[in-house]
Structure formats: C-alpha cells, structure tokens
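Obj: model holo form, ligand = molybdate ion.
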Amino acid sequence: MNMPWTLARQTARDAAKPLDATELALPDALGLALASAVRALTSQPTCDTSAMDGYAVAGPGPWTVVGRVAAGDPVPALALRPGEAFGVATGAPVPDGSESVLPVERCSTDGTQLREDHTAPDERGRRNDPTPRRHNGPAPANRHDHPARATGSHQPEPSPPSDRTLRWEADPSGNRAARRDGTPLGSHEASPPDDHHEPPPLGRHIRRRGEDWSAGDELIPAGSLISPAVVGLAAAAGHDTLLAHRRPRVAVIVTGDELLHTGPPRPGRVRDAIGPMLPGLLTRADLIGTTHLRDDASALAEALTSDQADVLVTCGATSVGPADHLRTVLSGLDAEILVSGVACRPGHPMLLAVLPDGRCVVGLPGNPFAALAAVLTLLHPLLDTLGGHTTRPPITAWLGDVPAHPRDTRLIPVTRSGNTAVPVGHDRPGSLWGAALADALAVVPPGHQGGEVELLA
Ligand SMILES: Nc1nc2c(c(=O)[nH]1)N[C@H]1C(S)=C(S)[C@@H](COP(=O)(O)OP(=O)(O)OC[C@H]3O[C@@H](n4cnc5c(N)ncnc54)[C@H](O)[C@@H]3O)O[C@H]1N2
Ligand code: MOO
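Output (holo structure tokens):
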C-alpha cells in the first residue's frame, strides 16, 4: 500500500534530527541554517543620525550655524537651541535638540545665517513645503515616539547634494561658535525676523536611535537560511560569528548494468541522467562522492555499509525486477523502512529507510523524472531537517483543471505566468524534458479540479 504523498513528505521531515552546530565566521556561515536566532547586540542607529548631507536645525529659521560634524565623528557635545543649526553629513550623529535636517540643496547661507530655500524642490520634487505641523518641544527621545516609526512610513533616502559649495562658518571643532566679544551666536533675539514659511517638519531626515531595532531584538529566527542579506544584517547588528548547523554529507550510488556515463545511448544501453542531475539538487548538502555499481546485491550492500555519509542516495533498483536488489539488501542490513512506495506519479516506488547506525537511505527510482519527484518528496525534506532549515515557506500558484488522478498525487512540470502555473507537458517518467523546460513541479492532489497548488522548485 503506497503512502499518501503529504504523509510521505512529512515522514521524511521527521526521520532525523538537525546535525550539530558550530560557531562560524560570517562568510563561512553562508548557505547554512541558523542554529540560534540572530539578536541585535546594539540598537540601530546607535544614536540619532542624519539621513542627509545638510544642517540639523532647531526651531524656526533663519538659523545660526554653530558647528559641524562628519560621519565617523563622535556625538557633538552641545545641545542645539531654537534658532541654531549644525552642519551634518549623512550618517553623522546629530546634536541633542536637533528637530530636523535640512538637505544642503534646500539651504542658502550668507555666512553665519542659514535659511531654508523654499524655491528649491525637496526630495519629493515639491516646492515650498506646506506641512502645517508645528511644535516647540524637544525632539522625540526614542523610537516609540518617532513619527516615522509610529506610522510605518520611512525616511526618504538621501541623495547626494548637487551643490557642495556651502561652507561652514562655525568652529570646525564642533564647539559652539561665538561672536568676537565672546557672546554665543544663535539665540532667537539675535536672529533677524524669519519669513513666514512653516518650519521643517519635526524629525524629517533624522534617523532616530533604535528606529530600525533595539538591542536584544530578535532579527532572524533560528532555522532560517543564512543568505547574503542575513550575513550583512548580522554584521550590522554587531556579530562576527553565527551559530550554524553543519551541512549533511551525501553519498550517491548509481546502479544499473545498462548505464553509460559518456557518449550517445544505443539499444540496450541508456545514459545515466540521474547522476549528473543530482549535484545541482544538493545545494543544501555536501556531495562527498558518486559510486557507479553494476546490478549486484553484495556490491550495493558494501556501498551502503562502508560509507561515512549522513545520507545515502541510491538510484534505480527500487522496483521488483530480478536486478532490483535494494529492498532485499536493506532488509539484510536490518534497516528500518519508513516509506516503501508513495501514492504519487511519477515515482511511486521511492523509498526511505534508516540504517541501524542512524544514517538514512533514500531510494530514487531509475526512471529519471521519477527520481526527480523522489528528490523533491523525500530527499529535500530530509536534508532540510538534517541541516536545521525549518523556515522554507511554501510557494503556491493557481493551476487550472489538469487531469488529476483519483487516488495519487501528480507532480507535473509547470512554468509560472504571474500567479498561474502552466503545464509544459513532456512529463513521462523516463523523460526529464518537461522538467528541464519547467520552473517548478506543481503538486496536483487527487481529484484536483482547478485551484491553488503548491510548487516544488
Ligand atoms: N512489475 C513492476 N514493474 C515496475 C513497476 C512496478 O510497480 N511493478 N514500477 C515501475 C516504475 S513506476 C518505476 S519508476 C520503475 C522503477 O525501477 P527501478 O527503480 O527498479 O529502476 P530500474 O529498473 O533500474 O530502471 C528503470 C528504468 O530507468 C532507467 N534508468 C535506471 N537508472 C537510470 C539512470 N541513472 N539514468 C537514466 N535512466 C535510468 C532504466 O534503464 C529503466 O529504463 O520500475 C517500473 N517497473
Ligand atoms: O514512478 Mo515510475 O516513474 O511512474 O515509472
């Protein structure tokens, strides 16, 4: 009795436990699965920073420029007061009291005095920002108060200023500039009357401390694939290493007296198509070797016992012909058979067993398209579990009323057009033509009459 397809896949997932985990340098962890969640070691940003090259300002303009800071500089030691401005570079810390940042291309200055140029288009291409909001209080102290965070909007990304001719008029040390007589610049009383434009919106172009995440936040859950972006994120969050599961080691055993490994097939002899296909299907494993065997039971038993792989993948010999020795050999090795035949087309003779020492054996049928079906049904779920991958999200698409089987699950090659799967045909068990033309195999459950289906890729 063949096992239902969904149960067979789940049985393969449950057949093993994740392999051991080690702490690896970031580049070495790429492609593995996280054994523990990535948590932020600090907040990001670690302090309020500018998202633009320009001026941090407080209160309505015009403003007196009282200092400047570049990316990489420490947080300025002073607090901005209303009517004061501070030159900032993108990514540089802004002084306490900063309420917004004016991009340099939106500013004009006559020396010490800074004004917003309301005739220059802002980064959204608008002129003379009509935003009516006003305030007099201090800037928000943490990310929970931050308008962008609270509304889910995001700060516009900076664009390089087109005009870098503005020069800072204040003390380049970052200290507050002073008049020649020693009295500080920048009080409201000292400023000439402003024009009647609204002040810049509170918080604009300031990335607030902790706006992206706070120290201790879980950024990526355990079991996730360590992608290039995960590596970059981990670095940004302060990590030098990641705890990752090791990849499963796989040995392949290709059986068949009739197989050729070079040159054109001829009557009675076929080219091995499965051996060359498998390395590309083992992206989450280490292929430690491929052995070619004649149809010989003792040679197969020897290959299954002598190998040090975590998983042994056999090709062919799953059926009931005189040369199909796999089941007999596994029985002789006291293997526990977990799956012996699956209600699916193609690939129903596929097999999954566990040897007494815990290594798993996946039996792929000899027909090449059936072998691919078995890889996707049994081998990939097993490798995911061994490698610690637990977060592979299902991909689905809409599939029309293709001929379904009354009892068995069909796996058919499809291409995707938008969210629709389109069968490509050429799907006989002995032929990889359809699969080679396809983006994925659609899982067509028994009795399917059109609707959403899962795609295996
Ligand atoms: N009496 C029955 N016969 C068969 C049944 C059955 O239920 N009862 N099932 C059929 C199905 S379905 C499949 S699939 C195959 C599975 O056969 P095996 O896994 O035992 O494989 P072989 O008999 O060695 O080969 C089958 C077929 O595939 C070709 N082959 C084998 N290896 C390769 C390879 N590496 N590359 C390309 N082609 C390969 C082989 O030449 C045969 O043509 O059993 C059916 N029979
Ligand atoms: O599973 Mo077999 O490939 O249907 O012929």
